[in-house]
Amino acid sequence: MLFRALLGAFFGALCLAGAAWAAEETSSQDAASEEVATAEPAAAALPGDAAAGKKLYRRNCRACHGATAKGASSYPKLVGHPAAYLIDKVVRYREGEKFGPNTPLMAQRVKKLSDQDIANVTAFIISLPDD
Ligand code: HEC
Predict the structure, then answer these.
(1) Closest-lying ligand 1 atom to the alpha carbon of residue 113
(2) Angle formed by the axes of helices 115-127 and 83-94, nearest 10°
(3) From first to last of its 131 residues, what are the pLDDT tens digits of the chain?
(4) Architecture of 42-127 per CATH?
(5) What residues does each domain of the chain span?
(6) How confident is the model over 76-104, as pLDDT tens digits?
(7) Which of 54, 56, 62, 65 to mutate to test the pocket of ligand 1 (most atoms within 8 A of CB)?
(8) Residue span of the signal peptide, if any (predicted)?
(9) Ligand 1: does its nearest atom lie under 6 Å from the Cβ of 126?
(10) Using a 6 Å cutoff on CB, does residue 79 contact ligand 1?
(11) Cα–ligand 1 centroid distance for 16 (angstroms)
């Protein structure tokens, strides 16, 4: 008798745990679908400050992409691209996505940039002439 009661309590607890697990499953699925809905990089929504971006560019980007962002050899040219393209690429490098063979070179330089930094540096890049 005692054994059956214990058994009942055990299965009861298992069911509760199961229900809690199922509830958690659905809420994390909700979070995942929300993420898909807001896949647009957050930096795209921020107004960029080109003056702050210029400082950041000099420190973090110029050595490779050049003072006027025209690139050189294996460092791609940045001017001439729309802001949305630049933001999307930098965010994806930051997140660890692999593009060309030199992805690691680029990725390590943008790992610590905030969304605001990316908006700022983009505002600076698109202010440069493409000639
Ligand atoms: C150490 C050199 C280096 C630094 C510093 C660097 N990059 Fe890059 N960047 C690269 C290389 C190399 C690539 C191409 C990587 C590849 O093979 O995918 C690249 C690619 C890019 C691209 C994609 C270009 C395209 O045509 O799609 C953007 C945008 C970019 N960099 C922006 C920046 C910005 C903004 C900074 C500064 C915050 C920066 N990079 C700093 C080397 C660098």
Answers:
(1) 38
(2) 140
(3) 555 554 455 444 444 444 444 444 445 455 555 555 556 789 888 999 999 999 999 999 999 999 999 999 999 999 999 999 999 999 999 999 999 999 999 999 999 999 999 999 999 999 999 98
(4) Orthogonal Bundle (1.10)
(5) 1-39, 42-127
(6) 999 999 999 999 999 999 999 999 999 99
(7) 65
(8) 1-22
(9) no
(10) no
(11) 51
Q: Which two tokens stand for residue 6?
A: 């214990």
In terms of C-beta density within 10 A (0-12 exposed, 13-18 middle, 19 or more buried), how is residue 18 classed? Answer: exposed
- The residue with tokens 């949305």 is 84
Neighbour count for residue 55 (Cβ, 10 Å): 13
Task: Please state, in angstroms and rounded to a whole number, the distance separating the CA atoms of residues 10 and 58.
Answer: 64
DSSP letters, the chain, are: -HHHHHHHHHHHHHHHHHHHHHHHHHHHHHHHHHHHHT-S-GGGGSPP-HHHHHHHHHHHTHHHH-TTS--BTTB---TTS-HHHHHHHHHHHHTT---STTHHHHHHHHTT--HHHHHHHHHHHHHS---
